[in-house]
Design a protein that fits this description.
Oligomer: homodimer
Distance between the termini of chain A: 42 Å
Strand order of the largest sheet of chain A: 1-3-2
Helix content of chain A: 25-40%
Shape of chain A: globular
Chain lengths: 138, 138
DNA sequence: TGATATTTGCAACTGGGTTGCACTTTTATG
DNA sequence: CATAAAAGTGCAACCCAGTTGCAAATATCA
C-alpha cells in the first residue's frame, strides 16, 4: 500500500504537506515521537500545522497516542493492518535517553475492574533504563 | 502515628505550612489529586510552596507520583506501611469527570521485558467511564 | 541574642500545546 | 476554463501547568 493509499483509505484528504508529514513519520522515526521531534525534523512546516495534522492522523487511527509520563504527548504509528481500533500495547520509557519504545508484540495483561467502570483505553508504561543506555554507561 | 510523626519519620523538617498541607492531603482528598486541586483547597498558600512541598513529600516517599495521561501531574498518598518504595498499583481515570482513582488492592500484572532493560517504575492506567458517571448520565 | 540556614511568597519565565484569523490551495460548479 | 466555496496552512498570540530566582520571613544553632 502506498502512502497515498494509506491516507486515502483513512478518509484523509491528500495534500503535499500531509504527504510529507506522513512519509517523515513513517520512515523517519524508529519509535515513538513527539510534536517537538517532528518540528525538529521538518523545520519548514509550521508547528500548528504539524499539531493539527497529528490530531487528524490520530483521529483517523493512523497514529496511536501515547502517554509515557514525560509530560509531553507522544505518538506512534499503528502497525495493525485491520480497521479496528488499535489495541493497547506496552511501552518502555528510558529515564536516561528519554526515548520511548513500543513493545508491539506484547499486549497489556488485563486486570479486574470495579463493577460499573466502562473501560475505553489502557496505558501500560514501564520506566527504566533501556538496553542501549544500560550497556553504555555515560 | 500522628501527622507530625509521619513527617518526622520521613526525614522532613516540620513547619506550620507543611503540617497544614499534609493534613489537607491526608484528610481532604479521597483519591488522586493535582497541584491545582491543592491550590483550590488552600488558597492562602502560594503555588510555588505547594509545588515544592509536593516534590519534597514525593521524594520522601510519602506521596506517589501518578501519570494518568491527563497532562498534569497527579499525586496520591502512599498507603504502604513499610519503608520500601511503593509498588505500582492500577489507576482508573474517568474521561467524563476527570477524576482518577487508585485500585490499591490491584497490583500491576508483570510483562516480559526485552533483555537489557532495567525497570524502575510501572504505570498502568485505564481510561474509561467511572461507575458514578456511567449510572448517572448527564 | 546574633549569625546562619531554611522556608516561603512574589513575580517572572518556560515549554508544550492550542486557537483566531488572514492568506493560500484545493475542490466543486456553472 | 472561470470562479465561488471549502479546506488547509502559516503566523502570531495566547493559555496553562509547572518551574525558578530572589528577597523577605522564619527557624535553628552557637
Amino acid at each position: 500500500m502506498t502512502d497515498e493509499e494509506t491516507l486515502h483509505n483513512a478518509g484523509i484528504r491528500i495534500t503535499a504537506v500531509r504527504l510529507m508529514i506522513w512519509k517523515q513519520i513513517r520512515h523517519g522515526f524508529n519509535s515513538v515521537f513527539s510534536l517537538y521531534d517532528l518540528e525538529e525534523a521538518m523545520p519548514t512546516v509550521d508547528r500548528s500545522t504539524l499539531f493539527r495534522t497529528l490530531t487528524l492522523f490520530s483521529d483517523a487511527h493512523l497514529l496511536h497516542n501515547v502517554d509515557d509520563g514525560s509530560g509531553s504527548q507522544k505518538y506512534c504509528v499503528c502497525h495493525h493492518d485491520d480497521t479496528r481500533h488499535c489495541l493497547g500495547h506496552v511501552h518502555l520509557t528510558c529515564v536516561k535517553c528519554h526515548k520511548t519504545f513500543c513493545l508491539n508484540n506484547v499486549t497489556i495483561p488485563p486486570v479486574t475492574l470495579p463493577e460499573g467502570f466502562i473501560p475505553e483505553e489502557t496505558e501500560y508504561v514501564v520506566k527504566g533504563i533501556c538496553g542501549h543506555c544500560s550497556t553504555k554507561p555515560h
